[in-house]
Structures are given as C-alpha cells and as structure tokens.
Design goal:
505 residues; Jelly Rolls; 2 domains; five-stranded antiparallel beta sheet
Amino acid sequence: MELERSIPKSINYQDVLPVAVPAVARRKKFYPANGTTFNHTGSNEIRVEIGSTNSMLDPQHSYIEFFVQNNTAQTVGFDLGGGHVMFKEVRVEQGGRVLAREQEHNRLHAAILSVVQTNSDGQFTESVTQMQKGCNERGGGQVAHLAPIPYGAGPGPAQTDGSAFANLEHNPQNMLPAGDACKFIMAMPTGLFTQDKLLPLPLVRQDAPITLVFIMEANDATGAWNAAPVGNLDIIRFNYIAQMIEVGGDVIQQVRMMQEMGGGQLTISSTDIEQNSTTLPNGASGEVPVRVPIRKRSVKSLLFVIHSEDFANGGAGGAEQNMFSLSFAGNAAMENYQLKVGSVVYPPTPINCWGSPARAVTAARGLPIGERGECALELAKALGSLGFTNPTGRLAGITYGVSPQRAVALGEPELTDGDNGNGAAPIGPITNEIQSVCPFGLDLDSFQHTAIESGVDSETMAMETNLILNIAGAGAGVETKTVQTYLIFDQHYYFNSDGSVTFSN
C-alpha cells in the first residue's frame, strides 16, 4: 500500500497565519494595596490586587520588580535564587480564598530550582535580571569579579577545576553594604501564573480581585551576613509589571459564552506545588519513612532537600552562622530513595545515591565513592530538563552533596556523618572551601510534556504516602535535620459565573 504523501510546511503556501481579534497589549504596574515599605519585623506581608474590566492578563510575560534596602549595620550577600530568597511564603488569593500557597518558597528556589535550572552561563543573565551577583559584588574585595572564587577567606589565584561554587554568588567578601540598596526582578512563580493561558480578569468580581501575597523571610535566612543583622532589610518600590491585553466588549462576550457553555465555569489547567516539612530522627538508619501528608489526584513529581537545623541556627562550627542556610544541604548518608503510595513503590527499583560520606562505610557496602550521576539525572527528569544539553545545571562533583574524594584531594579531613548531613564541623561556606548543595527529585508522570493528567493518584484511595530514605548506619548524625518535600501536581482553576475563582486537584 502506497503511503499518503504530504507537502512540507516550507512549501505549503496555503498555511497562512489567521488574523487575531482586535486587541492592544499594554504594560501596567500594580502596586501593593497595604503599604510602601515592608520588612520582617514590621509589615511583613505584601498584597498586590490585580483586576480589570476590559483586559486579560498575560502571566507568561509579566514579572515582579522591587528594591531591597539594607537598613542594618552589617553587609549582606544574597543566597541562590535571587529575589525569591526574600519570601518564605507566596500565595494567590481571590475573595478571601487561597488558590495557591507555596510555603518554604525561598528554599525551593535556593536549594533546588536555581541550582538545576541555571547553568554557569545563566549566571550572567541572572546578574542582569535578578541582580544577585551584582548585589553580592557591591562591596568589592575580590581581584577577579568574573573568575571562580579561590579557596580560603581572601583573594587569590582563581581555581580552574570547577571547585568554587557559582562564581561570586557564594562569596561572603562581596556583599551589599549597610545603607545600600539593590534591585530584584523575577517571575511570579506559582499557580495560575505558571501557565500560558490569558487570565480573564473581566470575569472576576471587581470588588474581589485576584491578589498576590508575599510573606517576608527573617533577615538572617536570606543569605550571608558578616555578623548578626541589627536592623532590617526593607523592601521598597514593589510592583507587579503586568502585560495586559485589552480586548473589545465582543471578545469578552465570547469568553462569557464559553463560560456558559462550560456550565457556568471557564477552566484553566496548570500545575502547582505544595510543601511539607518532616524532622529526620537523630541517628536514624535503614529504611526511614518520611511522611508526605499531601493527597492529590495527579502528582507529577516530587522534589526534596535535607537541611540542618543546627546549621541554620549557627551550626557546630560557629562561623557558619547566618551563611547561606537556604541552599546549603547534604545527603544525610542516604544510599537510595523511593516513594511509597499505599503498597506501591515508585520507581520499583530504588534511585541510588552515594551513600555514606565515610569512605570506609561506602567501600564496605560496595558502593562507588562519589557516585551521584543516577540521582542527579532523576532530579533532571523530575524537573523536565533531562533532554537539555546540561540537564543538571550548576551541580558539580565538588558541590553536589560534598564529595569525600574531593575532600581528600584537598588535604582536608575525611568527611564523616554529622554536620549538615555530609561532614564534620566546620565545613560551612564561610571560607568557600566546599559549598554543598544537595537537591533530589523523583519523576512520577507517565506521559511528560502532554496536556493530560498522568501523574500518580494519591487522593482517590486516600492512600498514605511516604518518601523512603535508605540511610547508612548512623547516617542521620548528631544534629537535627529537616526533610523538605515539594509535590508538583496538576491543578484546575475555574472562573465561575458569580465572579469567583475556585480550584480542584
């Protein structure tokens, strides 16, 4: 049978772009409804109301802009994640109803997303859009501003082996001076604002507009301080720069007809994220279940990171206090992990990590020292970047969970279980010796990059969900650690005929 032949798109001259309905794109700034200056100890909640009677909002081409004023007596350097580090929680609300709530927002970006989704080339772009590098360089103190940071506390020859982390982003000598300010620009990262459909603002009650809510983080958790901060980091000149698509009344009427045909609902599908924190017992070993009490109909992926409460509160090393406590993390001597939903485990074969940082323990278990490729690529799968040229972004042997091989090569004491889940104190980033970032991920979507629900259902049967960590002997160490889990799931938003917005997942 002869195959049907098709004309290539390149010579199909009948393939002409259709003409859009009349519309005008305008840029509009929305400002906080509850003040002009915000800080952690005072007005720590920023609320921006977004409404319109004749325009749609294009969330993919809108962004947030603000300044951080250092009104403390200390210099400060910002952690990975740029402006996101300023907010411990981000919400989307309408009519008093919470549509999306992302807790531990800054840790998600600092410890996971910014690490994997930006490579070394992207750092220079970030320096323009988020001003992270620019702010951290404001204080001077290094010889080569675009060269890798040398080991040790002062200037020196640049390393060429990739041992320094993220150039100047983790350099405590180059920080924003007291009294100075820097600008951050970032996309709205959650809920309705992560999908590509225009938001039909004319369908929303004008006395109950869609509202963006940002809850500020404590000063000492935002990055690196040369001493305990006295005073505040103030957010000023905050605004949401919206791409508004002004349409005629006939278009709005057509949208209302679509709403009527949908039974009084206009549906927009997106994804969302929910977070949960669980304390890892001291000295835990073997298969340690970490409960994930979040039930959704279609869970697409799970992300998690293990961080030290001791480190965040000063650390055993003392000098680690207030130093990049958001991004700095370890593996807690974890050999592998799986997700268990009811009696079913995902994947059936555990995802291997590098096990105990102690060389003797690792060798005794027959594990390759420093082997992290499998869990790194599974993380890339969970974030949809596996097919990229550089799927794991900034992760490197020297930075991903702290390599015992690298520690020995540097002539440093061999890392043992304990401090920060990956070594003995002090190995904090204060000296730029070994900066440890350690995100993990698990892909649960049957059909990626498709417009269908194909994630794991943890809701229908009300099944208990646990992240199973297989930890080497006494791997949890002597300090308190917290496992932060983030579930990415399918979400549907409904613009209702009464002007409200609701959701289901």
